Amino acid sequence: MPHATPHADPVTAELDSALRGGPFHVALRAAIAARGLPLQRVQHHLSRHGVKVGVTSLSYWQQGARRPQRPESLRAVRALEEILQLPEESLIRLLAEPDQHPADRRSTGRSYRTLVEASGVRERLLAEFGTPRDGGLHTLGQHERIRIGARRELAERESHHIVRAYRDGVDRYVAVHHGDPGAVPERMTVRALENCRTGRVRLHRDSGVLAAELLFDTRLRAGDTFLFRYVVEDGTAGVSHEYVRGADSPGGQYALQVCFDSGTLPVRCHRFTQPSAAAPRGGHQELALSGRHGSVHLVEPRVRSGYVGIAWDWE
Length: 315
Hints:
By secondary structure, this protein is of the alpha+beta class. It is built from seven helices and 13 strands. Strand 5 and strand 6 form a beta hairpin.
């Protein structure tokens, strides 16, 4: 009697189907069942990968009661793909939001995968500088000015920071710039504009991410405030459709202004928010384009974890 093929196994067949069509919690549950691992063993394997996730969270994930959203949870999902012997990206991609707001369908914004990959690259680049994620600084306020050039490209990003040190000895800030798809970090330029100077620069070509040290001329003491300004000259990618700003933790006021070349204006603009890379976008609001100055803006009185941005449509 011939041996049964793997596809004849109902458990394997269920897993294959779930990985193809989702949803995430069904695929995760099927993968765990196919490997015959109790959740305690799954947790143990995750800890060996340097990822801490509770059994309760794993249970919620496979029941569909909760979805992995935080960066550490997304790292756990990637580890689960290896632990459960699944194809790379098979679980991660199922976390992508399939239904989009009509405004999002009109534009070609950053994908879920792009946001997740950029987050991981950012962490690796920051680690190369040997500084904490926030560098010992709390952000009290930030104003970003994005300039879209005549070719509809992201030409430059100017950022003005107001920060407060929460420990002694802080004398630098690491700025991270994520270019549009196709951006070439090697061709970008970082210029210090006020109260700082450019130090070491690191980049990741595949994801279009650049990180640069901005060195202060003083060492801050805990409680000191500081203002500094810099610009990243980009212009290395194709047509730009949106600008997204991500935050890992709550912060102060944030203002985003997008300025368009007078000869190339979009037909409509809207703001949006996104709690995490895996969550659907919300908070949609149409923004009126200033006729004289060709710009739109948003102001967040207090930054929350997640993403906020402005998207626009061309004719």
